[in-house]
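Hello Y.,

Per our agreement to keep a running log of every chain we model this quarter, I'm adding this entry. I've kept the format consistent with earlier entries: sequence first, then predicted structure.
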Amino acid sequence: MKPAPIAYVRPDTVERAVGLLSESGGEAKVLAGGQSLVPMLNLRIAAFERLVDVTGLPGLRSASDEGSEVRLGACVTHERIQTGDVPDPSNGLMPSTASRIAYQAVRNRGTIGGSLALADPAADWLATMAALGAAIEWVGPDGPGSCPAEAFVEAAYTTRLGLYDVLTGIRIPRLHPDARWGTYKLCRKTGEFAHAMAIAIRQPGGCRAFLGATEGAPIRLPAVEDMLAGLRGWDASDAARLGEAMAADVAAAGRSLSDVHAWQSRTCLARAVAMSFGAAPPRLGRAA
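Predicted structure for the entry above:
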């Protein structure tokens, strides 16, 4: 299939992009790589009168190391993150995540900002940025705005961005040099969107743990984080306690998972935690 007729414009500044969106009355969409949006247009799952292509804006393609944090422009591609062409504040977590997104042709054009703005719950960057404590930046008719990545997603395909806002960058705090992490996503074949996903980060001063691919915003797991802080190593017997803590966190967040999805998420979480300790991931099983 082909998309319905649509106008295509390439503004030369972010401010002009915001103006074009405002003029459209909600009938325009930002194009920032298009590796998810264009297939949706081709299948006519989505339809707009105008595409505003921001991928050529130099300010959105830049990356800067600012000491305690790294700022990535919204149009930095997955491939640049994977290959180390931009600074990595994550001790390897971000390159590892990027390497498992789709396949090389998609990574060459797909962007971190485009993925975050679309907010497909099964995409990799939503939970990863939340776990890293990143902040999302944008510009709109009322000027610049920002919020923690953890609070950016409101529901599936719904974010804090207004109709006329353009996501401009992501600020990612630098992990402690001694930080250790584990991440695991369950999918039918390498590169696909996740059916379940978990990330665990252990570092001096605090641990972070999130579930992704939850049919909505990533779910933070405070009880799991407390448990991680008390562990000195990984043992398979910890998996049951980990699953109980995860279930309590999901319930406390007012969320629910189907029995199958809960089992998948427990398994991903156990594997992520084991990896953060350098242990072999536990085998798939109900105890996990």
